[in-house]
Amino acid sequence: MHINRRTTIQGSSVAALLLTLGAAWAAQPVVEIIAFTHPPVQSALKSLRDWLVSQGTHVRVVEIDMETSAGEKRAAAVGVTGHVPILILVDGKFAFARKDGTTVEFKSFPAASNMKGAWTLDDAKVIISAAH
């Protein structure tokens, strides 16, 4: 192969493009929703899913049915066992420090008017947005 100015410039352009794409991909947080596929779980996740869709390609979402062996194995891999209807992982973790120093865990139901959960959609938005 003959290397000249043109092939050097083309090679540099391709390398720059790959670096840019790699940086964009690396910055994209992965959100895993491991949950039961029946009510009331699905309605509890609607607001989070709607917001994730609005993020477009800035967030990669993976859905896993908690009642499958894949769901059970993934939950167990992060130390969660037992009857957990919802587990949200952001880059492989479900527990995060809030700005006030308390810990939020994306485990079980979110706090809502009809649910007594310990995490909110706003908690999820802050953590996911900070991950990219």
Tell me what you see in this structure.
With 132 residues, the protein is α+β, with helices and mostly antiparallel strands. It has one domain (28-130): Glutaredoxin (3-Layer(aba) Sandwich). Helix content is 42%, strand content 20%. It is built from 4 helices and 7 strands. The chain has helices spanning 5-27, 41-54, 69-77, 121-130, and strands at residues 30-35, 60-65, 86-90, 95-97, 103-105, 111-112, 115-116. The chain has a 3-stranded mixed β-sheet, with helices on both faces. The protein has a two-stranded antiparallel sheet with strand order 4-5. A two-stranded antiparallel sheet has the order 6-7.
Question: How are the secondary structure elements laid out?
Answer:
Layout: H1 5-27, E1 30-35, H2 41-54, E2 60-65, H3 69-77, E3 86-90, E4 95-97, E5 103-105, E6 111-112, E7 115-116, H4 121-130
Parallel strand pairs: 1-2
Antiparallel strand pairs: 1-3, 4-5, 6-7
Name its key features.
132 residues, alpha+beta, Glutaredoxin, two-stranded antiparallel ribbon, 4 helices
